[in-house]
């Protein structure tokens, strides 16, 4: 991208130069020749590039070469002091004013960027600054709540606008010179006046913002390490052992928890189909070791250390009272031995 070069007269607070900086290319556009012939009362030869450059420079350097960039409809007083009238025409006449924003040309470049640069006149800058101070800032302060540094913020807002409006330079295509008139004056064509208006209002309508709220630092407790004993839950650190599947009560013998039956009918006693030599008491299973012992918190039956002799149930023998029938040849006639053993 070509560098954006401007003369010293385009700087902020710089006075107007006695001569405008004009740079023409190796070929002059036909519309420029027709424009120069139209605005000159005295006919001047325009047969070469130096002649075009000299004529354009002298025309734009005239003290009367003031351009009207745009017109702004602004209020004459703050909103609290505006006149109220049922007739909107009378209300507009008494409450609003039309400010013409004028500028002069400081730079014409037809080689690198094909642009023309305008700088606002001191009178236009002064009118905009006065409106911003007496009307805009007053309305902005009335529309916001009060805080201790409100006046300083409003003053800073106005100072920023003074700097911005003095630095403002409008740059557009060189075709804007088609609006050139006698003595170097002119107006912007093709809707460029609206563009200037939006740019100036964008510089002026900066909001008066209150300071942001103070952020209060929240003191947070540092996270506890897994090894920290404070608030630690030992039960959540180890998975609970898997519990055995529930067993129906009728399938477990009261006197022998290790013997199970899965294919015996619930109506038939289990002892009826078994002889004494068929009953076996297996060794107790190995004790399951847990990472945290809770034996002292629950009641558990003592482990079986010796085989328990299997005896027939009385219900098996009650139906055969008086009959010498038993297991392995021992009948009801030897009940005294069973009693002694028990």
Give start-end ranges of low-pLDDT stretches: 256-266, 321-328
Helix-strand category: alpha/beta
Number of strands: 6
Q: Measured on Cα atoms, how large is the radius of gyration?
A: 54 Å
Roughly how many Å apart are the termini? 115 Å
Helix content: 25-40%
Tags for this model:
six-stranded mixed sheet, 342 residues, single chain, 27% helix, 11% strand, 8 helices, alpha/beta
Provide a short characterization of the protein structure.
The protein is built from eight helices and six strands. With 342 residues, it is of the alpha/beta class. The radius of gyration is 54 Å and the shape is extended.
What does this structure look like?
This protein is an alpha/beta fold and about 350 residues long. The chain is built from 8 helices and 6 strands; from the N terminus they run βααβαββααββααα. It has helices spanning about 30-40, 50-60, 90-95, 120-140, 150-165, 190-205, 315-320, 335-340; strands at about 20-25, 65-75, 95-110, 115-120, 170-175, 185. Strands 1, 2, 3, 4, 5 and 6 form a 6-stranded mixed sheet that branches. β3 (about 95-110) and β4 form a beta hairpin. α4 runs antiparallel to α5 (about 150-165). The longest helix is centred in the middle third of the chain and has 21 residues, at about 120-140. It is extended and about 110 Å long. It starts with 20 loop residues before the first strand and ends with a helix.
């Amino acid at each position: 991208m070509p560098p954006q070069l401007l003369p010293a007269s385009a700087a902020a607070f710089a006075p107007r130069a006695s001569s405008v900086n004009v740079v023409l290319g190796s070929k002059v556009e036909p519309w420029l020749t027709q424009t120069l012939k139209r605005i000159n009362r005295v006919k001047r030869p325009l047969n070469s590039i130096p002649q075009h450059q000299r004529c354009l420079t002298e025309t734009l350097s005239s003290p009367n070469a003031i351009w009207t960039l745009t017109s702004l409809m602004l209020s004459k007083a703050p909103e609290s002091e505006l006149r109220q009238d049922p007739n909107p025409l009378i209300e507009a006449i008494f409450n609003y004013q039309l400010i013409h924003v004028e500028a002069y040309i400081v730079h014409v470049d037809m080689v690198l960027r094909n642009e023309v640069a305008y700088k606002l006149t001191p009178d236009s800058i002064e009118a905009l600054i006065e409106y911003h101070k007496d009307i805009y800032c007053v309305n902005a302060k009335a529309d916001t709540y009060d805080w201790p540094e409100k006046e300083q913020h409003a003053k800073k807002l106005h100072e920023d606008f003074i700097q911005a409006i003095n630095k403002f330079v409008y740059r557009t295509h060189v075709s804007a010179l088609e609006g050139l008139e006698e003595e170097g004056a002119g107006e912007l064509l093709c809707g460029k006046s609206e563009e200037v208006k939006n740019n100036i209002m964008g510089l002026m309508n900066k909001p008066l913002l209150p300071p942001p709220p103070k952020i209060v630092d929240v003191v947070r407790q540092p996270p506890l390490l897994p090894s920290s004993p404070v608030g630690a839950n030992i039960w959540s650190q180890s998975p609970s052992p898997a519990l055995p599947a529930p067993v129906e009560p009728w399938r477990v013998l009261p006197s022998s928890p290790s013997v199970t039956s899965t294919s015996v009918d619930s109506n038939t006693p289990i002892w009826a189909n078994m002889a004494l030599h068929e009953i076996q008491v297996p060794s107790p299973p190995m004790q399951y070791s847990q990472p945290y012992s809770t034996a002292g918190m629950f009641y558990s039956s003592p482990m079986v250390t010796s085989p328990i002799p299997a005896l027939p149930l009385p219900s098996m023998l009650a139906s055969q009272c008086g009959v010498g029938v038993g297991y392995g040849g021992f009948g009801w006639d030897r009940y005294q031995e069973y009693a002694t053993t028990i």
